[in-house]
Amino acid sequence: MSTATSLFTPFPPFSPLPKTTSKFSTTFRLRLPSPITTLRHRKHSPFAAFSTLPGGGNNSGGGGGNNDNGKGKGGSGGGDENAGDENRKEAMIVLAEAGRSMETLPKDLAAAIQAGKVPGSVIDRFLGLEKSDLMRWLMQFDGFKERLLADDLFFAKVFIECGVGIFTKTAAEYERRREKFFKELEIVFADVVMAIIADFMLVYLPAPTVSLRPSLAASAAVISKFFHSCPDNAFQVALHGTSYSLLQRLGAVMRNGAKLFAVGTTSSLVGTAATNALINAKKAVDKSSVDEIENVPILSTSVAYGVYMAISSNLRYQVLAGVIEQRMLEPLLHQHKFLLSTICFAIRTGNTYLGSLLWVDYARLVGIQKPQEEENPVLVS
């Protein structure tokens, strides 16, 4: 302090100043926050996440690797390496605290840790899910494991969607058939079963994932490599150190659209074929019902339903899972699972009802249903 004062004195003092040692040099030390706490508590804002949508982001939500190393393409090499080191360090800290070793983990998850593709939050979620016998069994299947690691409520959402589907579709069948409901119970059963299969795929395919898939061989086709690098949900939050380009996110919409077209067309083919078979069998037994029930056009209905699922259902469920649930509700209500599940139930029920309204308009537009036949349409997703 005295030395600094002498520098601004206009004239030098008559006597030399005694040498002093600052007390602050030995009594105060700057302490930086521990890297462990910094790494373990990285969070993202549900609103700031939208600013990284075209190119992904370094948030710690669900996501997946998008190239051979699981590192983002949009950042610098040094930044990618740092993110991978941080992820690896986080994961090892979580394992150490849990008393687990890499050898006790599934091989694909251990490889992802070694490559720095997954942060400690994913490992923490895996260890929590392992405590449930049902979840531990489901995680033996790669598709379920990738989705549960991104969203620990994924199975609950499947149950919600299929449960809502069974109730609404059965109610709609009864509303449409009324006194003929029990006489045509076999037709109702076939319709509901195929609709539930479609509901399951609508939850499964667009769900955000933590990608643990190995990279494709260098000899793989360019198109295959591109779609392999795309996320499962176009709007999902990317893991720390991973980013998705706008083209990759559009690729996710196209890839899921193609899958849902196949699912919708196939399920409708099986459902309408089974329905027509039951109708024809009933006509053969009961001659009086020949003019009462008409066969459903199989090919046109199936293709139309496939197109509907590829476009309308695909986009609605992508937004529902990636934007509304993962980016908005999950960060705000993660510590309140019951409230989060309740809100998801309400939103998914509303989405199913919206889907039924859009299907009516679409079916009329393409001409596969006549207006007088649609007074009480079956709810679809």
From TrEMBL:
<keyword id="KW-0812">Transmembrane</keyword>
<comment type="similarity">
    <text>Belongs to the RETICULATA family.</text>
</comment>
<dbReference type="Pfam" id="PF11891">
    <property type="entry name" value="RETICULATA-like"/>
</dbReference>
<keyword id="KW-0472">Membrane</keyword>
<keyword id="KW-1133">Transmembrane helix</keyword>
<keyword id="KW-0934">Plastid</keyword>
<feature type="compositionally biased region" description="Gly residues">
    <location>
        <begin position="54"/>
        <end position="81"/>
    </location>
</feature>
<protein>
    <recommendedName>
        <fullName>Protein RETICULATA-RELATED 4, chloroplastic-like</fullName>
    </recommendedName>
</protein>
<keyword id="KW-0150">Chloroplast</keyword>
<dbReference type="InterPro" id="IPR021825">
    <property type="entry name" value="RETICULATA-related"/>
</dbReference>
<feature type="region of interest" description="Disordered">
    <location>
        <begin position="1"/>
        <end position="20"/>
    </location>
</feature>
<keyword id="KW-0809">Transit peptide</keyword>
<feature type="region of interest" description="Disordered">
    <location>
        <begin position="35"/>
        <end position="86"/>
    </location>
</feature>
<dbReference type="GO" id="GO:0031969">
    <property type="term" value="C:chloroplast membrane"/>
</dbReference>
